């Protein structure tokens, strides 16, 4: 069987699997050959055997394949006898492998005097396989050291812990950091997360960060370690409160929706004088797609007449049921059919296009409200008869 072939190359006998190590090592502890031990004769000829056909790279590829075929435990026994530079080379080959086709597995095993059938016709390689073999052969610390030396990209990033944060949380975490530090973090996190984080900054700061990243050279590992530890400490200190930073403009808008219109206008007018930008952000939060629910039906009917069937169909994409029902209820039955047909014809749409349609509609509502042409009910409006 396969295990018999593996033992021939690892220099073990069937009883080795059952008899405790004479040195009294605990179960699971890697068995390191004593200084006087020499590799089995069969192992001494292993590289020569596969090197008889093919070039040098082919030789290492086939040895790596053989190690994957015989399993982690037996492969670990073989690796213990090999020189460190060879272990590194084989580790790299194993880590770069994704699977071994059945035909190739048969060819390699035939060269090692054994044919082994496999259920799914392939053997899984990869970084995890290489790491498991090395850790079993040399122990946790030395095994990982060898793996990272052979396959540098396998080493976890110092900033991998940041991948659990969403872009908003990450920005909060970095709010007191300098531009160079933020640029380092942007370069270290996955590109998708980095792009979303960069998009959250103001245009001018975004440009400064982009320049810093583009001009970045090598950064001292000690500096990276200090930044990493500082960010970890910040997360430990703040815990979940990192997610609780308040968006003041959004919170104020939510409050204003529940007060009378005169008070709202007075507050916004005062805010406009003090900070036009902040006033604008509050007004944007006051007018969202949910504003449709607060518009009088008669006013909404007139608004919808200004939009084409296709525009309304696009507006309906991805909206909550209540909003869709409110819109469809305020068009004629004949137009409902036309809009439904357009909705089906449009099919799936890009989120950016749907959001743009909603933004245009909301901007139109806001303009009509400022001109006094529509009335938006406040949540706590009181009616007098």
TrEMBL record:
GO biological process: bacterial-type flagellum-dependent cell motility; chemotaxis
This protein's record includes keyword Cell membrane: yes
Signal peptide range in chain numbering: none
GO molecular function, one term: cytoskeletal motor activity
Membrane topology: Peripheral membrane protein
Residue stretches making up the Flagellar motor switch protein FliG middle domain: 167-238
InterPro entries for the chain: Flg_Motor_Flig, Flg_Motor_Flig_C, FliG_a-hlx, FliG_M, FliG_N
Residue span of region Disordered: 1-40
Pfam families xref list: FliG_C, FliG_M, FliG_N
Subcellular localization: Bacterial flagellum basal body; Cell membrane
Family membership noted in the UniProt record: Belongs to the FliG family.
Name of the protein in question: Flagellar motor switch protein FliG
Lineage: Bacteria, Pseudomonadati, Spirochaetota, Spirochaetia, Spirochaetales
